[in-house]
Design a protein that fits this description.
Low-confidence stretches: 1-15
Number of helices: 4
Order of helices and strands: EEHHEEEEEHEEHE
Number of domains: 1
Helix content: 10-25%
Largest sheet: 4 strands, antiparallel
Radius of gyration: 17 Å
Strand order of the largest sheet: 2-6-4-3
CATH class: Mainly Beta
Strand content: 15-25%
CATH topology: Thrombin, subunit H
Number of strands: 10
Length: about 170
């Protein structure tokens, strides 16, 4: 089964990048310290673990944030180009590889409203974590379907009672 990178998933490795590159969300640096701090003291663990107790740390050497990244601003809860690449000092053990989708493949996925599964450590709210201690956290799975911009706009026109979009847009 092929796996495609269409969303933003914390700690997913990309087959076209070296094993010591990690694709993640840029907004994690908004809350967890500056890029300089991450390049000095930052580390990650291998993907898929549910506890960091006694696990090996992989040192972050460089953080590359999308130059077009825009965080949430005021009442506009949509982030733009919310991704970053971490360059590590050594390889992570790979469990999955991901093929980056081409523009044609993305258009086909949008046309067919393809199912997307994203796995990561992010939370929508604290109740999603059964143990509040940060060293114990299982990865979460989110299942969604791709829609194009016009479908999303149509949905919000017809469902005005919904809150404004609160998602990441890759522009």
């Amino acid at each position: 089964m092929k796996k495609w990178l269409l969303g933003l998933v914390t700690l997913i490795t990309i087959s076209s990048l070296p094993a010591y590159s990690v694709f993640t969300v840029a907004h994690s640096f908004d809350a967890t310290g500056s890029i300089e701090q991450w390049e000095k003291d930052g580390f990650v663990y291998e993907p898929g673990i549910d506890s960091t107790v006694n696990k090996k740390k992989y040192k972050v050497k460089k953080v590359l944030v999308a130059p077009t990244y825009r965080p949430r601003i005021g009442m506009d809860q949509t982030r733009i180009d919310d991704f970053a690449i971490l360059i590590l000092e050594e390889d992570l053990p790979l469990k999955n590889t991901v093929k980056v989708a081409t523009n044609d493949e993305i258009q086909s996925f949008l046309k067919n409203s393809s199912k997307v599964q994203m796995i990561g450590y992010g939370l929508q709210n604290p109740s999603q974590r059964s143990n509040p201690r940060s060293e114990y956290r299982s990865p979460h799975r989110m299942v969604s379907y791709l829609v194009d911009k016009s479908q999303l706009e149509s949905f919000y026109r017809l469902n005005t009672w919904h809150i404004p979009p609160n998602q990441t847009i890759l522009d």
